[in-house]
Amino acid sequence: MKHAEPKSPVSFIANVARLPQKGLPVVIEADERQRAALAAECDLLSVEGYRAELLVTSWKRNGVKVSGRVEADITQACIVTLDPVTAHIDEPVEALFLPEQSKLGREGFEGGGEIIIDADGPDSPETFSGDTIDVGALAEQFFGLAIDPYPRKPGAALDAAGDDPPEESEFQKKLRSLLGKS
């Protein structure tokens, strides 16, 4: 039995069984409760705005492509001063999915086939089961990766004491005299 992943605060389940020819547009605009949950999940002080615009389209025979972007305005704590630091996130979203039972997805791993990975290219396809994909959770992953792990207030430096050399301790003075260095 698979254990269910915790549901994303911005979860949006897209039915991919019968996608329209032009694709399925999905817009996720997070409300206050969802933004508070995102802030808590990502260790942010707050999320002032969050919007994902995605397009879910067919890819190859029975795969699915999700593309678009996620934009957000967030406030984090500066790693030096703990003061609030605001940031704007504007991150492209792109992912490919194949059904679990897809031959395309299995061939590369089991058939001994080569898988060519381009570091700058799209990630290799993920698998999904059933007829649905949580495109909201996918957008949240891209949002999470775009957050600066070390936010700094402009001008904040780790050496907050200034550039003066620290005062020598008595021990250091004695050591210096023993070594004969001045």
Automatic annotation (TrEMBL):
Pfam families in UniProt: YceD
Highest taxon of the lineage: Bacteria
Region Disordered: start-end pairs: 154-182
InterPro entries per the UniProt record, alphabetical: YceD
Name listed for the protein in its UniProt record: DUF177 domain-containing protein
